[in-house]
Amino acid sequence: DIVPTMRLSTLLLLALAPLQTNAFAPQPMTTPSVNAAVQSSTSLLMGPPSADSVLKETYGEGSRKYRRTVYTHNEWVKHRSSDRFLRNLSSIFNSGVYKSLAKEVLATTAVATFLVIFNGLTGGYTDLDGVQHDAVINALPMLTLPLTPFTLLSPSLGLLLVFRTNSSYGRWDEARKFWGLNINHTRDLNRMATAWYGHDGIPVDPEKRAEDLRQVSLMTWAFVRSMKRHLSPPDEDEDAYIMELNSRLAPSQAEAIASATHRPNRALYDLSVAIDKLPMHFMRKNEINKNLSIFEDTLGGSERLLSSPVPLFYTRHTARFLSTWLLLLPFAMYDPFKGSWNHVAEIPAIALASVFLFGIEELATQLEEPFTILPMQGFCDKIGANCDEIVSWRGQGLDEKSVVEENMEAMAPSR
Fold first, then answer.
1. Which residues contact 301 (CB under 8 A, 6 or more apart)?
2. Closest to 382 in 3D by CA, of 25, 26, 24, 29
3. Burial of 326 (0-12, 13-18, 19+ CB in 10 A)
4. Interior/surface letters 182-210, b for 16+ CB within 10 angstroms, e for the rest
């Protein structure tokens, strides 16, 4: 029963191999910031690497920038389509995750190959004509292990991998929620600043109002952009960050933020100053400043995730357990594959098991540091565009009637 199954699996994989469907998410359409004079080189590198990308960018560390996926309705339709299983199976040879495991899978496959050859020499083998031959080396025993220890250890290994992946996904989810809070509260801050500008019937100068609110919008963007740079590798984002600051802020202000030891803190301070200059009741300013405390929390939480990995002794023990288990598994799987020619079906079976089990640990490792796979530049561009739009809206004190009064009159029944 094993031989037909293995042949069928092999034929299926070979048939699907030429299909070049890529495992990376497709690149969605994005809307640039309305005030951005310079587009960051790190903006939204989503989707697969281009055909002329160097090999190191198709897997491992180089491929992380292509995993910053942002879904729209079109991507969700494709994500849940009925052909997703065939599409994902056909991209198995293009998977950046699996390419990263080449050394580990090669090691376990080499052990299985050595074992098949060695046991064939010490225990006898069958030639291509089906003729059984005696052992070539009689002085050495065959190398096998009982399957029972692996069966007993499998639940423990499964629990370790489950906790490893769950904790890593939890870190990614927490980081995404931090940026979700940033998006929500930057909108909230600028909405309140725009709606509450002016008080006590004091006439509002439209030009001063526009400039004050523009500063609030710019400093809001400067904070999230500085936070993104704070959480990104310097060699990837430093030049683009400095260029974007100089393109949107006054030279002295851009220099003050760029030269600060802790850039997000400096940008948040400038935002506090911009809010304090707004002519409105201090109680309203207090409500706006509550958003800044939330920004401090998201920044501090992100720094905690970046500086504190899952305890290293747990990660190392899981990796050692999994590696030892898979390296010794061929010795236990030799007898169960006696139905195949010279037990040779064990080799692809061990390779496949290694890909999937090492892949679970690889997924956890890739998720553990979430910021370089989150589309933070896209978040910053969205925040900048949203804030610029919000502060451009008409506020109180600029018209004889408020928007609400106009709507109420328009909706009132005719008399």
1. 174, 178
2. 29
3. buried
4. beebbbbbbbbbbbbbbbeeeebeeeebe
Instruction: Tell me how far CA of residue 385 lies from CA of 94, 221, 391, 393, in angstroms.
Output: 36, 9, 10, 13
Give the pTM.
0.80
Mean pLDDT of 305-330: 96
E strand or H helix that includes residue 190: helix 148-196
Q: Rounded to whole angstroms, how far apart are CA atoms 119 and 342?
A: 9
Backbone Cα Rg of the chain: 30
State residue 346's pLDDT score. 96
| pLDDT over 70 (residue 372) | yes
Would you tell me how many other CB atoms lie within 10 Å of the CB of residue 100?
Answer: 19
Distance of CA 55 to the CA centre of its chain: 20
pLDDT at 411: 75
Q: What is the torsion angle, in degrees rounded to the nearest 10, for the CA atoms of residue 406, residue 408, residue 412 and residue 415?
A: -60
Residue 186: both structure tokens together:
């930057």
Angle of helix 312-333 relative to helix 102-123, nearest 10 degrees?
30
Task: Report the pLDDT value the prediction gives residue 92, as an integer from 0 to 100.
Answer: 84
Distance CA 378, CA 251 (A): 24
pLDDT at residue 128 greater than cutoff 70: yes
DSSP state of 48: S
SS3 for 125? strand
Q: CA 383 to CA 386: how far, in whole Å? A: 5
- Using pLDDT thresholds of 50, 70 and 90, give the confidence band for residue 57: low
Q: How far apart, in Å, are the Cα atoms of 153 and each of 159, 289, 290, 326? A: 10, 54, 51, 12
Position 208, amino acid: K
Cβ atoms < 10 Å from Cβ of 116: 22
- 402 versus 306: the higher-pLDDT residue is 306
Give which of 369, 288, 294 is closest to 64, Cα–Cα: 369
The answer to whether residues 196 and 284 touch, using CB atoms and an 8 Å cutoff, is: yes
In angstroms, the CA 270 to CA 253 distance is: 9
